[in-house]
Amino acid sequence: MSSTPLSSTDRTRLGRYRNERSRTDRSALYEILDEARICHLGVVVDGSPRVIPTGYGRSGDTLYLHGSTGASSLLAGPSQDICVTVTHLDGIVLARSLFHHSVNYRSAVIYGTPHRLIGDDEKLEGLRAITESLAPGQWDLARRPTPKELAATTVLALSLREASVKVRQGPPSDDAEDHALDVWAGVLPVRQVFGDPVPDPALRPGIPVPPHLTG
Amino acid sequence: MSSTPLSSTDRTRLGRYRNERSRTDRSALYEILDEARICHLGVVVDGSPRVIPTGYGRSGDTLYLHGSTGASSLLAGPSQDICVTVTHLDGIVLARSLFHHSVNYRSAVIYGTPHRLIGDDEKLEGLRAITESLAPGQWDLARRPTPKELAATTVLALSLREASVKVRQGPPSDDAEDHALDVWAGVLPVRQVFGDPVPDPALRPGIPVPPHLTG
């Protein structure tokens, strides 16, 4: 029930809560970004926040996003501040008190103003990063974008300069006096798993599942 | 690679993409909300978007959020527009073309201005909904909030009136001419699973794991 670990807005707070700390090392940031498949993208539209799930990719210290060039795309307009958040839910923290219920998680929050890629080569590089993040191994397998498809796709690059990583792991942080309670406490682990590939019903016979999907 | 399904801002678009449609029935909304454990909360701070993961709960057509009453909490300030997004990633859609790579997902996006609950009884009702969402079964087990804990907790109620549900399921939507390609196509299913409960190392001996955690 304690929402403080997840509701704080302080990007730099360190170790205020037991088992939780902001991280400043880049490797933790890269790990969180590289392990996830989708992010939540926040933009401001007419003064109000809008948050949508979308794919992304990372290469070095750049995060890539893409969208349709259509007028309805969140990313088709002029440069604007955005926020990209990637979260891994690792466990439900079951404390002796409701107040100290929480979650184990790893999150990365990136702020900045992305710039739109113009040249076909740089757009393809961004799309390659996005594909490798969403579906590793597919870039070298599937048909590459046609000029028309590429023209219909907006690709944005966002610096990872302003990024905040937060991690909470470990058992509940109950108050000392609550340890005497007759209440079970611990963590229910959560993880994301992949199932067996399901072929398109329209798949032509004789095309094997590529090895990168069976690992 | 096709980001259009996830990047659209049009809340009411219907069936523009094969396999994808906006849903208007409440049951789809409830299902998406009730099945997830965390949401992504978007707010505007100094004109810029901020997106953080946090817990939530639902009761009827009300969504509950909570936060610390501390000054650093995103939710401690005056009434403001927020956006709450809940996403289930159900599969990676592997098309014959990179352009039609996508994801199968279910998402709910809720917009509105929440109101802060004041009375202890209504705050407890909100916290019960949040606990039942995050850790079903724990409300009746763990120690209830003290007056001090309750006073330190902000509880917000957000109407589900303005909610948008989007769902994409099914095989890739390749262009007809790409079906002749010698490329495997299909879906890699993704799901979230729970592991076995891990006891707090400080747990007193003889306290069994409650049944609602072993199912």
Automatic annotation (TrEMBL), chains A, B:
GO MF, one example: oxidoreductase activity
Hydrolase is among the record's keywords: no
Record has Oxidoreductase as a keyword: yes
Enzyme kind, highest EC tier: oxidoreductase
Alphabetized Gene3D superfamilies for the sequence: Electron Transport, Fmn-binding Protein, Chain A (2.30.110.10)
Keywords recorded for this protein, A-Z: Oxidoreductase
Known EC number: 1.-.-.-
Protein name: Pyridoxamine 5'-phosphate oxidase family protein
Natural source organism: Actinomadura rugatobispora
